[in-house]
Amino acid sequence: MKKILLTTIVILLVVLIALLGRYFYKRNTFPKSGETGITGGTANLPKPEDISLAEAMTKLKNSLPYSTNFFTITEFDYKTAEFIVVFVNRTDESEKEFTNWLQNSGFSAIPKERFLLRR
User: Fold this and answer.
1) Based on the domain organization, do 68 and 85 belong to the same domain?
2) Are strands 115-118 and 82-87 parallel, antiparallel or unpaired?
3) For the CA atoms of the chain, what is the radius of gyration?
4) Confidence (pTM)
5) Same-domain check for residues 88 and 37
6) Residue numbers of the domain that contains 101
7) Structure confidence at residue 55 as a pLDDT band (50, 70, 90)
8) Within this chain, do residues 54 and 14 fall inside the same structural domain, yes or no?
9) Cα separation of 34 and 31, whole Å?
């Protein structure tokens, strides 16, 4: 009788441990984008273009002040989330040079609207 009781308890413990392990394994896994997690919410992962923008902005912020013969990017204004661009001599040519630089410099993920152009 004791052997049967002991065997039953051991089997119940093994089943209980297996069920708890399965519960905690599922609980600690993160849902993929668009899937519902244990809270009922969906995972919203950043878009690749948002990641590219953040990386480009961080790289440019770390390079400030950035100067060329036509302009200098002096600082980043955190209130407006814009880079301050000061031209040596603001002309159509210097603005065109800035636009060309933006497209070809590796910072093309940053839209031109994120730059405040000054004299």
Assistant:
1) yes
2) parallel
3) 29
4) 0.61
5) no
6) 48-118
7) very high
8) no
9) 8
The sign of the CA dihedral 46, 114, 84, 81 is negative
How much is the pLDDT for 85? 94
**For range 26-41, the mean pLDDT:** 59
In this structure, are 17 and 59 located in the same domain?
no
Nearest CA-CA partner of 61 in 49, 69, 53: 53
- Same domain for 40 and 95, yes or no, is no
Contacts 24+ apart (CB under 8 A), 69-77: 70/94, 70/97, 70/98, 71/97, 71/98, 71/101, 73/115, 77/116
Average pLDDT over residues 105-109: 88
If asked whether residues 58 and 92 sit together in one domain, one would say yes
Return the pLDDT at 83: 95
